[in-house]
UniProtKB/TrEMBL annotation:
Alphabetized GO MF terms: pyrophosphatase activity
A matching Pfam family: CYTH
SMART domains (UniProt xref): CYTH
Protein name: Triphosphate tunnel metalloenzyme 3
Classification via PANTHER family: OS08G0299200 PROTEIN, TRIPHOSPHATE TUNNEL METALLOENZYME 3
InterPro entries for this protein: CYTH-like_dom_sf, CYTH_domain
Lineage top rank: taxon: Eukaryota
All residue ranges annotated as the CYTH domain in the record: 1-202
Taxonomic lineage of the native organism: Eukaryota, Viridiplantae, Streptophyta, Embryophyta, Tracheophyta
Length: 206
């Protein structure tokens, strides 16, 4: 079970303010390309599941890292997300091949992709690519927390968000909210996952 605090920043100015405040704690910046898949008959989404391939690098065609992720039964309440998640690194070349031909999911030896095939009953010729979006993520180590500050680029708008995975989400949320308030940075609790926003094709109201 992945448990994360998710707080939304209203605009680029708030995102820039937070990035400036946290700049002494920056550890790395990731350029992520997220691509999603389902069965042709919505076998995954009908059971509240999604398969994602995430490429790390400014260009997915030259990315040297790819992570497959199966997520299911996501719940997002009061800025805390809980979701069943299974992740596995795969060869980026295989990931690019799957993007070009999603039916390769049906024959892959990857553990996560086997789960998709076996647990959701998608027939070998029935996979579809749903598309995806780019995310620029700053990763900060702050007061024992790993904060991920995201700029998510959809083709219909840009989302700004701060995420923090924690076994004590309420405590982590309180610490992050205090940081934001002390620095006059506006925020709200996230109401939808990035994937849900991508599928809705519009940013949720603040």
């Amino acid at each position: 079970m992945e448990v994360e605090v998710k707080l939304r920043l209203p605009d680029s100015a708030a995102h820039q303010s937070l990035s400036t405040v946290l700049s002494p704690f920056l550890r790395r910046t990731h350029f992520q390309h997220n691509v999603f898949f389902d069965g042709a008959a919505s076998e995954l989404s009908s059971r509240r599941a999604v398969l994602r391939l995430r490429f790390y690098g400014e260009d997915p065609e030259t990315a040297e890292r790819c992570v497959s992720s199966l997520k299911a039964k996501a719940v997002l309440v009061n800025g805390v997300s809980r979701v069943e998640e299974d992740e596995e690194e795969i060869d980026p070349f295989l990931g690019r091949e799957i993007c070009a031909n999603p039916n390769l999911i049906g024959s892959s030896e990857s553990r996560v992709l086997k789960r998709v095939r076996e647990e959701f009953g998608v027939k070998e010729s029935g996979y579809v690519c749903l598309g995806g979006f780019k995310n620029i993520r700053g990763v900060y180590e702050w007061k024992g927390l790993e904060l991920e500050v995201d700029e998510t680029l959809f083709d219909f708008g840009t989302l700004y968000e701060i995420e923090c995975e924690s076994s004590e989400p309420e405590k982590a949320k309180e610490m992050i909210e205090e940081l934001l308030k002390d620095n006059g940075i506006p925020y709200s609790c996230s109401k939808m996952s990035k994937f849900a926003i991508f599928r809705a094709r519009e940013l949720p109201l603040l």
